[in-house]
């Protein structure tokens, strides 16, 4: 099913009161060729009729009518219609770090265009014939698995460092974040747990399989009242969702009285399966390496609304799976899902994947795992038959090696280097809480950092 972009043109005809800015107005030069409005359309791979049938049979259709509407018309991202001063567009340069993975990003963009999730490229003049105002955000890339490369900076001694443990300040208040793989907080999120809310440019993080996830820094620019970022317009309270963190999973297993088997299911390109509403598109443009623009019709990594928007269809999918299969429960962490069943239950992952595919949910087969005694989920290996939870051996060794690097005499480190280390070590304390006190000095160093 596709919906042409024409309706959004009408919605954009009335320009709101602009945000005052002193920046020079962007100029449209030449006679722009047409093409943007003819090409762009909402396209959703989901089998909406199958979703409607499944939700009805599970008696939850009314509860998730908004999900069906979102698949058909796109999900609102909370971005209001706005402009900035007299600018016709605001398209800052991408981060230099994006060039580190330029070829992979370009390949990814081409795949998105071929799949009908992106449209373009278009010139600024072309887009200006459709949108009275539009903007892009600086692009970076996440290639999971390796620590980002930064130019070393001298680690300064903190001025009047604060005392106390620092533990319990809360990730949000202290500014500390764990790495993408290990992020654990209270389980109720209003941001994107897959992305560092970085203080500076987004970097390239390298994945074990070499895949690249382009992200847009929708929080850019920061601290400019005359140029508010896209994220600054979004009310994060409207997009809260609940993930199943360590405390919730461990509490469940601790209270479970029977041995169980566990399986893993991973959504393929989770965010990219979710279309956004057309009236959001002018503010989610992507600038390529040639300075041209791409119209992105899917949820992007880097937006405040990401977790909540994805959480609604993911919750609906979970309830559908629980209705059709004899499962005890399903734990979710963004696109990762831990299925729990009794040992004598006949449910198997082949049937679960088949049902999910009928709904149109793309599956990452390489990350799926059949039911067995133990599985790795949220960075830990869980075994309910033996009643154990542990870190993978290779991860333990990596943490020790990372600590050793910081202990070398004369070692240089940035604020972000320490921030990442603290997040990773904090992850370890979920199973070894007695180690929390040893993080005090690192928390104090971050709190007293001089920028």
TrEMBL record:
InterPro entries xrefs: DNA/RNA_pol_sf (IPR043502), Hepadnavirus_pol/RT (IPR052055)
Annotated segments matching region Disordered: 17-36, 144-167
The protein, known as: Reverse transcriptase domain-containing protein
């Amino acid at each position: 099913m596709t919906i042409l972009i024409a309706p959004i043109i009408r919605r954009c005809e009335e320009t709101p009161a602009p945000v005052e800015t002193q920046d020079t107005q962007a100029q449209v030069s030449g006679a722009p060729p047409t093409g943007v409005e003819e090409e762009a359309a909402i396209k959703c791979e989901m089998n909406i009729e199958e979703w409607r049938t499944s939700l009805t049979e599970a008696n939850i259709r009314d509860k998730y009518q908004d999900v069906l509407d979102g698949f058909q018309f796109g999900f609102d991202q909370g971005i209001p219609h706005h402009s900035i001063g007299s600018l016709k567009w605001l398209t800052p340069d991408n981060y230099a770090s994006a060039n580190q993975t330029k070829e992979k990003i370009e390949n990814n963009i081409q795949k998105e265009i071929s799949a009908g999730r992106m449209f373009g490229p278009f010139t600024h003049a072309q887009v200006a014939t459709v949108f009275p105002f539009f903007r892009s955000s600086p692009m970076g890339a996440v290639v999971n698995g390796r620590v980002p490369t930064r130019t070393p900076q001298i680690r300064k001694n903190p001025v009047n460092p604060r005392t106390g443990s620092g533990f319990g300040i809360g990730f949000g208040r202290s500014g500390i974040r764990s790495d993408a793989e290990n992020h654990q907080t209270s389980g109720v999120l209003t941001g994107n747990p897959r992305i560092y809310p970085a203080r500076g440019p987004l970097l390239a993080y390298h994945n074990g399989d070499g895949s690249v996830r382009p992200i847009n820094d929708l929080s850019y620019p920061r601290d400019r009242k005359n140029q508010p970022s896209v994220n600054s317009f979004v009310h994060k309270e409207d997009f809260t969702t609940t993930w199943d963190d360590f405390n919730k999973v461990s509490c469940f297993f601790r209270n479970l009285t029977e041995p169980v088997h566990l399986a893993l299911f991973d959504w393929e390109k989770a965010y990219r399966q979710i279309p956004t509403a057309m009236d959001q598109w002018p503010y989610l443009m992507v600038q390529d390496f040639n300075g041209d623009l791409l119209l992105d019709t899917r949820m992007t990594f880097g937006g405040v609304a990401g977790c909540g928007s994805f959480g609604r269809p993911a919750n609906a999918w979970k309830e559908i799976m629980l209705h059709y299969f004899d499962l005890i429960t399903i734990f979710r962490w963004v696109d990762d899902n831990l299925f729990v069943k009794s040992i004598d239950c006949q449910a198997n992952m082949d049937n679960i994947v088949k049902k999910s595919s009928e709904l149109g949910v793309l599956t990452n087969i390489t990350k799926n795992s059949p039911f067995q005694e133990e599985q790795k989920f949220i960075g830990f290996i869980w075994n309910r038959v033996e009643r154990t939870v542990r870190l993978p051996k290779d991860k333990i060794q990596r943490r020790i090696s990372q600590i050793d690097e910081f202990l070398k005499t004369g070692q240089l480190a940035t604020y972000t280097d320490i921030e990442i280390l603290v997040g990773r070590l904090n992850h370890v304390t979920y199973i070894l809480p007695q180690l929390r006190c040893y993080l005090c000095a690192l928390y104090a160093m971050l709190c007293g950092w001089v920028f």
